[in-house]
Amino acid sequence: MAKKETEAEIERLPIDLLAYTFFLLPSFRDLALASGVCKKWRWAALESLAGRKRLSFADQQMDDESTARLVCAADNLKELNISRSCWGCRITDEGLFKISSAKCIGKLTSISLWGMAGITDSGVINLVSKAYSLQHLNIGGTFITDESLYAIANHCPNLKTIILWSCRQVTESGLIALVNKCRKLESINVGGMRVPLDCFTGLRIISPALQIKSVSQHLNISTQVA
């Protein structure tokens, strides 16, 4: 009898209160379990995602489908972290293509793709070509080439910081194109890259105030998304 009374009390909770409760859940696994209880809880879970400004999958075991589904439900998202960690998100270009269709992409100001070895220029270009509000980008530890930098230069005029640490397939040509077109760029992390030192002198000629960093602290520039 007590169990039925408890269930009845839960059912009387308004959906906005349920959504706020789900908003406080630290684990996306718990949120997924809650959304499977009933239709009302599923709508509350979706509403809780719609109100989120930040999403981080860095410590979650996520795949392309589940990551994209959550991002697409977060209509007001501003900061997205899908960095690879020991047990974390390991999505591919397929996931980036699906994420690119989300309503929030044009609103994103911060994206971290740190260490995502499964992505290529194709997925990155598709994503950044729609992220025109982007200010902070971390694509360090990936296998992108100059093609991604050309796309960023052409589509992200508000970019302020970018981390390219250990992007060894990026060349001087890509960096020059980036600095030439992203006139708001304040900081660039180039540690571990295979570019000549005189390239950095050239970048400073283009943008005298540009901070050029070469440290391996890949998450230190406004891309820590919680």
Question: What this model shows, in words?
Answer:
The protein has helices at residues 2-11, 15-23, 28-35, 39-50, 64-73, 93-99, 121-128, 146-155, 172-181, 197-206, and strands at 54-56, 79-81, 110-112, 136-138, 161-163, 187-189, 211-213. The chain is of the alpha/beta class. It folds into 2 domains: 1-50, no CATH class; 53-213, Ribonuclease Inhibitor (Leucine-rich repeat, LRR (right-handed beta-alpha superhelix), Alpha-Beta Horseshoe), CATH 3.80.10. α8 (146-155) links the parallel β4 (136-138) and β5. α5 packs parallel to α6 (93-99), α6 packs parallel to α7 and α8 packs parallel to α9 (172-181). It is elongated, with a radius of gyration of 20 Å. Residues 1-6 and 217-226 have low confidence and may be disordered.
The average pLDDT is: 83
Give the radius of gyration: 20 Å
Q: Low-confidence runs (pLDDT<50, min 5 residues)?
A: 1-6, 217-226
CATH superfamily of the largest domain: Ribonuclease Inhibitor
The general outline is: elongated
* Spatial strand order of the main sheet: 1-2-3-4-5-6-7
Query: Helix and strand succession?
Result: HHHHEHEHEHEHEHEHE
What is the count of β-strands? 7
C-alpha end-to-end distance: 41 Å
As for the CATH topology of the largest domain, it is Leucine-rich repeat, LRR (right-handed beta-alpha superhelix)
GO biological process, one term: SCF-dependent proteasomal ubiquitin-dependent protein catabolic process
Pfam families: DUF7885 (PF25372)
Protein name: F-box/LRR-repeat protein 15-like leucin rich repeat domain-containing protein
InterPro entries: FBXL15_LRR (IPR057207), Leu-rich_rpt_Cys-con_subtyp (IPR006553), LRR_dom_sf (IPR032675)
